[in-house]
Amino acid sequence: MNQKQLEKQLASLPLLAYGFLEPGELDFTPRVRAVCAGECPMYGKTWACPPAVGSEERCRERCLSYAGCLMLCTVGEAGDITDMAQTLATREAHEAITEQAGRFLRSQGAEIFILSCRSCTLCPSCEYEAGRPCAHPDKMHPCVESHGINLIPAMEKLGLAFSYGGNVVTWVSLIFYNDEEEHV
After folding, report:
1. Which of 104, 97, 105, 96 lies closest to 68 in space, CA to CA?
2. What is the domain extent for residue 10?
């Protein structure tokens, strides 16, 4: 992978910030996954969320099987941050940027795995609850929290901004990658 070329491509995106780290530098903690189970209404309802994504250990192993990780941060501005529908609507732009960054990596021959900032919303209703396979496994990205990752320590390590306030929300995705040249 040509990191300089990738960074030039990333510079063309409206990112707040990005950073590279090794997957082993991430903070995997059961506390994050416990929040999914106890507070998220999507828990047990989609292929992008627990328990469908696999056990905590399996999720950790999958992430650690990659050589590198690219963290992407964008910001969205909602008219009224207390209006959840307005706030969540700002993540669609982040998802499109994440997809574009994934294409940049793939164009250089990297094998990638994306964790995003949301439960999947590709389909009006997920096939998971009906006991059927995911209709879009190539487009569905599990959420970061589903893998038990606490983003704050990694963001601090990379010096990346993380702020909620006013009408601004920060969205974060992780793109794990193996450079094809390193794994031939």
Report:
1. 105
2. 3-183
Candidates 35, 62, 25, 51; CA nearest to 158 is 25
CA atoms within 13 A on the CB side of 32: 19
For the chain, first and last CA: distance in Å?
Answer: 13
Are the C-beta atoms of 45 and 52 separated by less than 8 Å?
no
* pLDDT per residue as tens, the chain (184 positions): 888 999 999 999 999 889 999 999 999 999 999 988 888 888 999 999 999 999 999 999 999 999 999 999 998 888 887 777 787 788 888 999 999 999 999 999 999 999 998 778 888 888 998 999 999 988 899 999 999 999 999 988 888 766 666 788 889 999 999 986 554 3
The number of residues making up the chain comes to: 184
Question: How far is Cα 126 from Cα 135, in angstroms, rounded to an integer?
Answer: 8
Domains in the chain: how many in total? 1
In angstroms, the CA 92 to CA 122 distance is: 11
Of 19, 5, 143, 129, the closest CA to residue 69 belongs to 19
Structure tokens at 129: 């609850």
Structure tokens at 51: 């328990």
